[in-house]
Amino acid sequence: MNGSNLHVDTFGSKGIGLSTEERACLATSLVGLTSSQAFSSADFWGKIATADVSKDYYVAVAYHGDPFAPTIFMCQDALNWVQAPNVTDDEMHAAADLRAAFMGDPAFEFPLPNGAAGTLPEAKRLTAVVQCILRDAHIVPRGAYFRDSLGKLQRNATFAGLRPHDVTRLASYVHLRPAATSDAQLARPDFEDAVDVLDTVEHDQPKGCWVVEKSVMNVVLSSLIWPGYHHATSVADASFASIYVGQGKKNLDAGFMI
Amino acid sequence: MEDVNQAKQYLQQHSDRTGINLYDHLTELLAQVLEKRPRNPADVFENISSQVKRDRFNLESIQSPLGYKKKPEPNPSLGQVNKLMTVFQSVKRSEDGNDDAAGQVPDILELSGLFEWAGVSFGKEETFLLALSIHQLVQETGLQSARFWGKLSARQGAYYVVEAEGAPPVEDDPEKVASDKAAVEPAKPPPMNVPEFEGFPDIKKPVDMSLPKEEGTGVNKYTYFVCTSIGEAWARLPDLLPEHVTAARAIRKYLTGNLSTPIVSYPLFPGTEAHFLRAQIARITAATVVCPLGYYTFDPESADEEHPETNTAIIVNTEYEVLPNDALLSLENWVHQIPHVLPQGRTTWVNPVKPRGEGEDEDADREEGEGGDDDDVSGDATGGGSEREVEPETGPTLLTSITEDADFAGHPAWSVRACSRLQPSKFSPVHLRSNRWPGAHAVYYNGKFACVYVGDGLKDLGGEPMPMPALPPLQVEFKDEPLVELVDPSVKDEKAFEEMLKEKEDDAQPDEEDGDEEPAD
Asked: Quick one: signal sequence residues (chain A) (predicted)?
C-alpha cells in the first residue's frame, strides 16, 4: 500500500473511485498523520459505508515498521483522524458475525450476535472489522515481502512485480499475516525460503471466493468473503494497492452463493 | 602480501556444489550495487546477493532484474487489446450530424464526472472506451436511445449493462423458448410411432399456468444489452417473464459471468443466468431509478379513460424549473421513475384465475381453479372447482416520492449527502444512495441527474440471515384406523353374483323407461 490506491484509475475496473475532494483531503491529512506519532507509514485503508451516506467512515492504517502491528485511525470527513479503540479477540469474533449495518454514529451500541449478552460500540466494531479484514483478506503479491536473515518480515525494496503469466494466478498472492501453514516448501517448484513464508491465497475456502479481473493496466482480486475488499497489482510495474469499500459485513453465506 | 594472496586464492575457490566462487560473486555484487545505487544498500545486501545468484544461471545478461526476460513473450493482454482496437475503429461519424431522432445517448464522459463525486468511477480511459462501445451498439442495432445502466460484478469478470429503448423486436421463437425450458425440465421421451387407437380418450394439453409477459411496456419497456468486457460484442438479454421475477426474489446467487450458466438453487429457478440477470436488473431498476420531482409528468394524451390512475406514460415536463442542489438534499424531491414490480412479477396486475364460461369442459375448469393459488394476497383456499376471489395486487404508483419507500432494517431506504463538504452548495453535487440495493446511486448537479448501479446485483439482507426456504412438510402417515380385511371372492362366487344381478335386471326391465339405473355394486 503505497498511496496508489488514492489514484482514481487503480480500482476503476470495480467502479470504485474517490472524488477529487476526498483525494485532496486524504493525501494531505495522511502526511500529517504519519508525522504526528512518528509512524513509518500511514496508508488509506478504505471506506466503510454506513446507513447514512453522509456519515461513511474513512479508515487509515499506520505502521511503526511492523506490518503485523497496525494502528487504526478513523474519521468521517477525511481530515481529522481519530485513533480507533483497541479490541479483544472475542470482540473481533463477534464483529465478524454481526449482520446489522453500521449506523454512522461511533457510540452506537450493537447487541452481540449469537445470543451473547452485552453490546459492542460501533467504534470498536470498526476496529474489529478492520483487523478481521487485514487478517482474512489483505493480500500482497508474492515477493513483495521477505524474511530477512534476522527473521524479520520486511518490505522488499527490489520487488519488480509479478511476471505476466503469474499475475492472474492465485498462487502468486499471499496473505500478509503470520503464516498458519508450514508446508509451503512442498507447494511450489520455485520455492524460496525467504519469500514463501506467508500463506498463499490459492487454498482459501470456500473455493472460488477470490474473483480475478484482468484489465489492460492491472489485475484486481476481489474477495467474496469480505465483499468490498479489492487488491490491484499493476501488470506494467511493481506497484500494488489494496482498498476496502464496503459495508463492513462479512459474507457469511458465501458458500451458498458461489 | 602472502596473506593477501592466500586470502585471494581462498576466495577464488570454486564451490563444489554450485560452481561459483566468492571472489567473482562479490565482484559482480559490488558492480550491481554501484550500478543501481539502491537506498540503504547495507540493508538490501542479502537480497541483491541472492538475486545475483539466481540470475547467474540465466543465459541472458545478468544485469536484468528479477522477472525481466529478454526473450519477448507475447503480452497476455494482447487479446484484450485487439478487441479494444475494434472499438476504436468502429464508430462512424454521421456527416450531417443529424442525431436528434435516433441513437440518443447521454454524454457519458460528463456523467462520469458526476459519478466520480459520488465515489463511482471507472477511470477516464475505460469510461471513454465504454462510451465508444455504447455508440457502436446504438448505431449497429438501430436503437432509439440508450443509457449506461451500470456494471454488475460476477465471479469471472463483470457485466456492463446498457438500457435501451426502441430496440427492434425479436421474434419470440417458440422453439427457442421451449429449448430454454427443456434445459431445466427433464427431457421428454421421443414420441413413438403408434397407429391410431380409437379406444383411448384424447390427451388434453396441459394448461399453461404462467402469467402473460408484458410486451413492450412495464418491465419490458426497455431492452437490456450486456457485455462482459469493453470490446466484446453486446448480447441482448431476453424479455422478462413474471415467473423469473418471482423465482429471482427467492434465491441469492452470485453471477458467474457467463450468460448460459444454469442457476442451481433451491427453490428452482426456471432459466439460465441470462434470465436471472434480467430479473435482477428489472428489480433494481424498478426500485432505484429515480428523478427529481417535477422533471417528468404524466402524459395527458396517453391516459386511459377507464383507468386514469394507471397511467404509466411519462414525458419530460416542459415547465420544469431547475431546482438548486440544496433542494435535492431532502428526499421528498426525489421520485421514482419506473413502475413498481408487483409480487406477481408484472407492473400491471393480471388475474391469474381465468374467468369461466368460455366453452371449456369441466376438467379444465377444475385444473385452473386448483392452479390459481400462486397469489399470496388472498389466503382462502376453498378447494377446486370454485372461482377464487383474488385481490388485485397494488404497488406504489409512478412518480411517488422516495420518502414513501418502506424503511429497511430500521433505517430509511435512502440516504443523501452533498458530495462536497468544503465547497459552496452550488458547486456540490448531491449523491443519493440506496440502502436496500447497495450499489444503486443517483447524482444531481444543477439540473443534470443520472442513476447508475455498480454492485453484485443482490438485495441487501438487512441484518437478517439469508432466507433459507423451508422444505415442504413431510407427508403424514394415514391415521391408524383399524383395518378390515375383506375376503377376496373366488371366481365361482363372482359368477354366482353376476347371475343373480342379471336375474334382477330381467325382472325389473319391463317397468323402466330410461335405463340409466346402474347396478349398485
From this structure: none
